[in-house]
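Data availability (excerpt). The following record was deposited with the supplementary files.
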Amino acid sequence: MASALNAVRLRLPRQISRSRILGKYLHTTAAGQNIVTSPIPDIELPSGNLTSLILNKVTKWGHHTASECSVTGRRYTYSQLVDGASKWAGMLSKMGMKKGDVLAVVMPNCPEYPIVLLGTLMAGVVVTTVNSNYTAGEIHRQLVDSGSKMILYDPVLESRVNNALELFKRPILTASNGPSTRSGALNLRHVFEDSSLAFADPVELSGNELALMPYSSGTTGPPKGVAITHNGFSSNMVMYMTPTCFPIKEATATSQGAFMCLLPSYHIYGILPITLVGLAVGINVVTVPAFDPNTFVKTISSHKMSTLHLVPPLLNFLLHSPSVTAESMAHLEHIVIGAAPVSQSAAQNFKDKVNKQIFFQEGYGMTEVLLTHVVPSTVDEVGTCGQLLPNVQARVVDTVTGENLKANEDGEIWVKTPSMMQGYFQNPSATAETIDAEGWLHTGDVGHYDERGFFKIVDRTKELVKVKGLQVSPSELEDLLRQCPAVVDVGVVGVPHDRLGEAPRAYVVTSKMVSEEIIHEFLEDKVAPHKKLVGGVCFVKELPKNATGKLLRRELRRMATEGAA
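Predicted structure:
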């Protein structure tokens, strides 16, 4: 059967010249409000099925590796990627999945993940990515909330998935990435191997249809489905991949770079800049199912990683690892840092240790807006999240008066971008709390911009705890802990942690003496590992609250800083 490569047809923007200069970035509206814009002129954006943008140039490097597992060596070329995605799209249609239906994917990082993403989007089916560390109860909650009609899981998670489906108690299609003991579950890899299956073409879309629905707690509250369209993703990719912003070399017929996909594929960091952008430029996406300190550096070296996407704790590990040398990092050209700022000393120390020419690029984004800021590829500057991407606007707003602030004044950052979510899935009230009537999304992050339009995050108004870049909702943990016998009241905040960045800590009021171990045991099987109280449990007589009874988390954070209990 002929390859599906020949079936790819695209609707892409015409080529537009793009400036590399740091031009004007500040506009004053008729109302006298300062609106920050990108120094890069707006560009024309693509529309239609997202897969068309990603597979645009695949015929150039069909023989190169598209994705491979760092542990098993299982790999797929770009030709196999397209063929597998096309077969998967056809199989979804054959099973009755229609445009707009939702497929839940519960898998750790694996080389099949990119194929599943593309194939599902080809069919016009929506992907909701599920944290592979979730408990059965948490998986069940997302299945219900997203309205999933099908679930694809890894066999190692089968027990948890089965328990989740027992709670679900609704008809649902099932598929497994390999052999499964579950009756009726489709084997994903058999689909790829079946030569009798026809290749499906990408479904025609306007691009305003939903593509992916990762879950985020937003600025507060329990996790919510972030509804992002095909055009939302494709526009963000093109905005980021302008020469001024993008430092990555595109593959040629004889060479290609490599990305390490250690950051979770269910998280927006793993989905967008690593997987989707990587595939769009012919990168070998090397999937790492879990961090292993014994093999981490060896994987970077043996796969000749050209770009590493990291969070500060991973950079800290590399900085202190004796295995990290100029020889072991010989192919490394770029380090992309997200989730939290990196210190200038850490970046410089790494350069001194490995290669002074390595380019550190920081950026800023969130699931609800994708990527909005990056440091230009021509500027070596650490400690800032950079300038706005083209087509993006921002305001820095006084959190008390609501007035727009000038350069170097701290306030909440609001943004407008073509990549913004449609809203939280079937949750208009939460959407209205995040996106105002004028279309500005309130990020909950506090920061400022300088005279050049470079932004820096200094704090955040939102209450979320970020554990290795993953969001933890304090209110979700508080609701669970209040169900623990003897717990009268509880408040959760994030505290600094050397390895995790932040870790949740609970301040607990009890009706009788209980031990910290009892609290930990109560949560043990109810939450994913990153939500556990690694920051500790502190017993207090009362929680700080205002006159209306609202918990003052600021006071809890102060208590944590001062070591009060």
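Summary of structural features: DSSP finds 15 helices and 29 strands in the chain.
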